[in-house]
Write a structure and sequence with these properties.
Helix content is 33%, strand content 21%. By secondary structure, the chain is of the alpha/beta class. The strands form two sheets. The protein has a six-stranded parallel sheet, with helices on both faces. Strands 1, 2, 3 and 4 form a four-stranded mixed sheet that branches. It is elongated.
Length: 238
């Protein structure tokens, strides 16, 4: 639904299970995305055909959209859009997070809490395919997913634009809530196990932890992003 509502999208066909035809027709009629190709826009499939299209283990809920990838977002465009904005502006940076489920879930939290963008390294980050898009639950069409060649240089660029960078680190001495990060915040999260790489850590103005408790003090990276984004938004409105 989010992809079809996005004027920047281009799509080819919508596949649905029998029984969804009327809802699918209404969705197509209201679509803002441009269609490529010809023929019937809605294809009604049975469960066997869906399994052949998406794979036996796919969780599809009876809907699948064949769409072109979005045009690449640029960090310069994101910073220009933020320049005149008021209130707290948050950019999420993911360092070596390679699981598309995690990146998609972070995008969903970024949309829910009003983050301006999610930035990943061009090398190693997962493609914006069906798995990532489904985990994002529509957020891939709402929050720019920016790929950069070098995360450390991108952080320098954001800091030059007035952002303070805070890296999440479970070994940090102070919690996220203890820091006054101002109105422009970069929230940097590393991979589970590896954490933030050295050059990314060196760009962080602050390192902070979430107030988790033993014996299981660590969180999945997407859960940590959601909790941290909530804290940043909560502290702004408190």
């Amino acid at each position: 639904m989010a992809a079809l509502a996005n004027p920047a999208r281009r799509w080819r066909r919508l596949a649905v299970l029998a029984g969804h035809e009327e809802e699918a027709a209404a969705l197509i009629a209201a679509a803002q995305a441009g269609r490529l190709g010809s023929g019937e826009p809605v294809h009604v499939l049975d469960r066997a055909a869906f399994a052949a299209l998406l794979g036996e283990e796919s969780v599809h809920q009876g809907w699948a959209l064949e769409a072109e990838p979005l045009a690449a977002s640029d960090i310069d465009d994101v910073l220009r859009a933020i320049h005149a904005a008021t209130g707290r502006q948050i950019i999420v940076v993911l360092d070596q997070v390679t699981d598309p489920h995690n990146v998609g879930a972070v995008l969903r939290s970024a949309a829910a809490f009003g983050a301006s963008a999610v930035v990943v390294a061009e090398h190693g980050a997962p493609p914006a395919g069906g798995v990532l898009a489904k985990a994002a639950s529509g957020a891939l069409d709402l929050v720019p997913l920016v790929r950069v060649v070098n995360l450390a240089r991108a952080l320098d660029q954001m800091k030059e634009a007035g952002f303070w960078c805070c890296g999440l680190d479970e070994s940090a001495t102070e919690t996220l809530a203890a820091h006054d990060l101002g109105l422009r915040v970069v929230l940097a999260l590393g991979s589970e196990g590896g954490g933030l790489r050295r050059l990314v850590r060196e760009r962080c103005d602050y390192l902070a932890r979430l107030p988790t408790r033993p014996p299981l003090a660590s969180l999945n990276v997407s859960n940590a992003a959601a909790v941290a984004l909530y804290e940043l938004v909560r502290s702004e409105s408190a």
